[in-house]
């Protein structure tokens, strides 16, 4: 089973606080699983925590969540060595690939070193639903801004570019994100794109934005485009509340 066309749900959310676990799966990630359209068996969900250094605590909590929700769970780690012999075949066999946040610069470097970037593209083309938060949103786009290099946000322009747009994450959660994205789009460093407040996701079918979803009432997404005199035009996109 796979989505009817290449599908990405790029988010600034997808998980939340838990009474019993370190965190629990949020509505946006449940939506990603639903988009795969699995019937008659448990959905196969692969967790990819590269951007957080393959933190074992994240991996353990993911498996706890997957057990609670009836998923067939797996994960892909690259450190200190890949835990899967043929991750290209493994990723193609999934229904959903969920990429965690952290250092998007580190993620991109390790994926390209090991060939995960080409495996992800093949999975996306085959209809495996790609989703993720923060670094796991930014990575699919041309670029955006990141704190991967230190506490001051810096441009990132070497994303995988499955989606031909810039991407702004945590748009209302970190005050430096919005002005830097505006600057980078206004001066042509980045192409026009989309930004998400915390709790919001962008659903792409192929390379076109198909829907905007939120698990947090009042949060929004934005289309950001260059305008005259090296300024930008920011258009609010009202999302559909889920969960």
What would your notes on this structure say?
With 243 residues, the protein is α/β, with parallel strands linked by helices. It has a single domain, classed as Rossmann fold (3-Layer(aba) Sandwich). Helices cover 26% and strands 29% of the residues. It is built from seven helices and 16 strands. An eight-stranded mixed β-sheet has the order 5-4-6-7-1-12-13-16, sandwiched between helices. The protein has a six-stranded mixed β-sheet with strand order 9-8-10-11-14-15. A two-stranded antiparallel ribbon has the order 2-3. The protein is globular and about 55 Å long. The two termini are 24 Å apart. The mean pLDDT is 96.
Summary keywords:
243 residues; alpha/beta; 8-stranded mixed β-sheet; 7 helices
Topology:
Layout: E1 7-11, E2 15-16, E3 24-25, H1 27-35, E4 44-48, H2 56-69, E5 72-75, H3 87-92, E6 96-99, H4 104-114, H5 116-125, E7 129-133, H6 135-138, E8 143-146, E9 154-156, E10 166-168, H7 177-186, E11 193-196, E12 200-205, E13 208-214, E14 221-227, E15 231-237, E16 240-241
Distance between the termini: 24 Å
- The number of domains is 1
Oligomer: single chain
CATH architecture name: 3-Layer(aba) Sandwich
- The CATH homologous superfamily is called Class I glutamine amidotransferase (GATase) domain
Give the H and E element order.
Answer: EEEHEHEHEHHEHEEEHEEEEEE
What's a concise summary of this model?
The chain is an alpha/beta fold. The chain has helices at 27-35, 56-69, 87-92, 104-114, 116-125, 135-138, 177-186, and strands spanning 7-11, 15-16, 24-25, 44-48, 72-75, 96-99, 129-133, 143-146, 154-156, 166-168, 193-196, 200-205, 208-214, 221-227, 231-237, 240-241.
